[in-house]
Amino acid sequence: MGLFDRLRGRGARAQGNGGGNGRRATLDRASERADLSHLEQFVATRRGVEGYVEPRTAVTESTIVLVAADGEWTRRRIAGPEVARRLSRELTIPVYDAQVTGYPQRMRDWSARQKRGQ
Questions:
Q1: Mean pLDDT value across residues 10-22
Q2: Rounded mean pLDDT, 51-56
Q3: Which parts of the chain fold into alpha helices (H)?
Q4: Are strands 63-67 and 95-97 parallel, antiparallel or unpaired?
Q5: Above 80 in pLDDT, residue 104?
Q6: Residue 50: beta bridge partners?
Q7: What are the residue ranges spanned by the domains of the chain?
């Protein structure tokens, strides 16, 4: 299967990412158990974690960005906003729509410190 088949939503890859459920295909892989395990571990080992759900696009599946109190963050694929809400309830963290709220300044500050090597 060629790239253009994937972009048009045809072929085996498209079937795995949306096929019969009415969702359009993406070029990204679906979320896996390892993604959820990483998110659970991040929350368990940091304090003040909040979640920011990013929407599905033509290229990527839905993702969630977890941001700790100190601004450290991580991003992983999720199977949609409903999974993010369920995860937030299970882990007792607030979750926001990144398109509505944006990202916290502490996340940008942490990333800038990492670039400077501090």
A1: 42
A2: 94
A3: 3-7, 11-16, 33-44, 81-91, 98-101, 105-116
A4: unpaired
A5: yes
A6: 67
A7: 1-27, 31-116
